[in-house]
């Protein structure tokens, strides 16, 4: 596990992860087909499996949801989130290094590459645009 996503002593480790896949000034956003966040644009990701690190979870979720292999993850932040079904700690990563043919799973209603400026006008999960600003800065993307 990289030292970038390790938690401060006493804090719970992340139990979910998402990834901002960035290329040429655009980010790949997905529209969720199921709860939580059904019909909202967001980043690919999901819950960790038993014994899985946040990085491993992020890599697996991108592969399962999009058919892409991602590498060189950069930790952006860890968020504490809550919904009617409970709470979780989401490790958010960014990467410009991924490969494969994009093949969306049934968990995804839609997907598209979006310029950073356009993301602010979309119906997204809370504060996604601010998160994307930090993700782009983390990987040095414009």
From TrEMBL:
Q: Give start-end of the signal peptide.
A: none
Lineage, top-rank taxon, reads Bacteria
Start and end of every Nudix hydrolase domain? 12-137
**One Pfam family, short name:** NUDIX
Cofactor(s) of this protein? Mg(2+)
Q: Which residues form a coiled coil?
A: none
**Mind telling me which residue stretches traverse the membrane in this protein?**
none
Q: Which UniProt keywords apply?
A: Hydrolase
What PROSITE patterns does the annotation carry? NUDIX, NUDIX_BOX
- InterPro entries assigned: Nudix_hydrolase, NUDIX_hydrolase-like_dom_sf, NUDIX_hydrolase_CS, NUDIX_hydrolase_dom
Please state which protein family the record places this protein in.
Belongs to the Nudix hydrolase family.
Q: Which PANTHER family match?
A: GDP-MANNOSE MANNOSYL HYDROLASE, MUTT_NUDIX FAMILY PROTEIN
Q: What is this protein called?
A: DNA mismatch repair protein MutT
- Which lineage is the organism of this entry classified under, starting from the top rank? Bacteria, Pseudomonadati, Pseudomonadota, Alphaproteobacteria, Hyphomicrobiales
